[in-house]
Design goal:
Layout (H helix, E strand, L loop, with lengths): L4 E3 L18 E9 L12 H11 L3 E9 L9 H9 L2 E10 L2 E9 L5 E7 L6 E7 L4 E6 L4 H16 L5 E6 L5 H7 L5 E2 L18 E6 L6 E7 L11 E7 L1
Parallel strand pairs: 1-4, 2-3, 8-9
Antiparallel strand pairs: 2-13, 3-5, 4-5, 6-7, 7-8, 9-11, 10-11, 12-13
Helix pairs in contact: 1-2
Length: about 250
């Protein structure tokens, strides 16, 4: 397997390694999935079900939320590495908080290794939150899981906007925003982002989806960019969230 996992360290952001994008068509299938650490809506802990969802979708990038790293409740298992092995993808973990002898946070699976990564702290009074920033040759990926507190959610969005303002490549932002109104998310990000996922489809809870709190957004995409397959999977209960994905093509 190609899995290569590294815990994120605060290294160069998109201000470095930012040459012009290669002039070749880019096609990317991008998934976002709050995996609830492999615990399904039926409360059965089965990471294999999460891997099966990812494998049958065959994305190039997966933005992960609610991921454990060597915690007691997971018997010291390194969950990102396990998912990387099961999907044949490179894995990154970004700590939000220390938890039960290990850490809890967000992650990233990718077919190719990022050029650079960065961890950005975000507000969260019930628990600390973070933004993962990963640079690839033709784009930058940002992953987040925002606070449950509205004030912290609204305070996080300008921070994300400021970070992505420095990126001279297309930016793909995904995660669990814990915000039901897409317009509030977009306005808080300053109007530069646009929705790529279908914001008419509900994403939570997975057995009877009734609210939309998970999004895939983009900024700086070329005018040639075409979004296809904006899908929310309502058929799986491997987590309490529905996985969602889009396919993007641009030149």
């Amino acid at each position: 397997m190609k899995s290569l996992l590294r815990i994120l360290l605060p290294v160069a952001c998109c201000g470095l390694l930012l040459g012009a994008c290669a002039q070749r068509p880019t096609t990317l299938k991008f998934m976002s999935y709050n995996i609830r650490n492999g615990r399904g809506i039926d409360n059965v802990q089965d990471l294999g079900r999460v891997a099966e969802v990812i494998n049958r979708t065959a994305p190039d990038i997966v933005a992960l939320q609610e991921v454990d790293s060597v915690t007691g409740r997971m018997s010291g298992r390194f969950i990102p590495a396990e998912l990387g092995e099961m999907t044949g993808m490179h894995a990154r973990f970004c700590r939000a908080i220390d938890y039960d002898g290990g850490a809890y946070g967000i992650g990233l699976l990718s077919r190719s290794e990022p050029l650079a990564v960065r961890r950005i702290p975000l507000p969260g009074r019930e628990e600390a939150r973070v933004l993962l920033v990963a640079e690839f040759p033709d784009y930058v990926v940002c992953v987040t899981h925002l606070s449950l507190t509205r004030e912290d959610q609204l305070a996080s969005l300008p921070i994300i906007r400021t970070v992505t303002d420095t990126c001279r490549k297309p930016v793909l932002l995904a995660g669990d925003f814990n915000m039901k109104v897409a317009r509030t998310v977009l306005d808080g990000l300053g109007g530069e982002f646009r929705p790529l996922s279908d914001t008419t489809q509900m994403t939570f809870p997975s057995d009877k989806p009734s609210i939309r709190i998970d999004y895939i957004l983009g900024r700086g995409l070329p005018v040639s960019a075409v979004v296809t397959e904006p899908t929310v999977d309502h058929t799986t209960t491997a987590s309490d969230h529905c996985p969602l994905w889009v396919t993007l093509t641009w030149e």
